[in-house]
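CORE FACILITY INTAKE
Project code: CF-77B
Contact: R.S. (postdoc)
Sample description: multi-component assembly, two entities in total
Requested service: structural model of the whole complex
Turnaround: standard
Below are the sequence entries exactly as provided by the requester. Do not edit them.
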Amino acid sequence: MPELPELNPVIHGKLRLALLSLLVGVEEAEFTWLRAKTDSTDGNLGAQLAKLEEAGYVSVKKKFVQRKPQTLYRITEAGRQAFLEYIQALKELLGTAI
Amino acid sequence: MTANAEELELKDRLSLIETMITEGRRTTGRYGWVFVLWGVAYYIAIAWASIGPDYLAWPITMTVSAALTGIIFGSKCRKRPKTTISRAMASIWIAMGISMFVLFTALGWSGKLADNHIFIAIAAAMLGTANATSSMTLKWKLQFVCALIWWVTAAVSCFGSASQSSMTFLVAIFLCQIVFGIYLIITEASQRGKAALHA
């Protein structure tokens, strides 16, 4: 019997998965945009983004625009690769379940 | 967790990925107002040129419109994420605007833009090119119809009389800028309404 793939626990969290799915389609996104799209709180969003950053899946850039702070997130190459592998593993698992 | 519950959870994750990717790539921009603004700007420039010095009418109206577009975009779209498509769209229109500005300003100041037919033909052909490129990138048939209207206008300007070519230009502005822009505004508003209902 073939071995079933394991799902990456860093990506598997619902909010982290939503964040990577959003970031994979854009060049970079602001914190407030991610918060609006995921309907999450500042604290939870910040914590989950920190975990993704710690894993090297997203990079952060902070700057000031018209004297207002702006935090921009971008998916890294490692993040993109891990995300693709996660989808592949998910499909394989679902394939065996169906 | 039972096998069935686990399978449901996995499907839920897959569905979440699809929803978020679609959400991220959705054109969140609202561009109807840009078409309307530029349509009005063309009419102002045409009216101004017909009653005053036309070498001032177009450069000033176009510069003010470009500045207005930049300011409104800066305030409205600052928080939206950039995508490759949005960058491509902006590039098309900015490049066309710069080309038009440089060409017509140079032709006007050098005194070689004496024939109104040529002005309309070049402007309409450039607008046709930008609309066609945008429509092919976005796979948007309605905008390609606008491109066709602009190209027809360019051709009519080469063969028609002065009044025919001016009239065709005015109609093309009305259809491809004002009507198309208002249609976009209405469509974008209804999409926003639907998105609010789904939220």
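Facility notes:
- Chain A has one domain: 9-97.
- The CA atoms of residues 8 and 85 of chain A lie 9 Å apart.
Invoice: internal transfer
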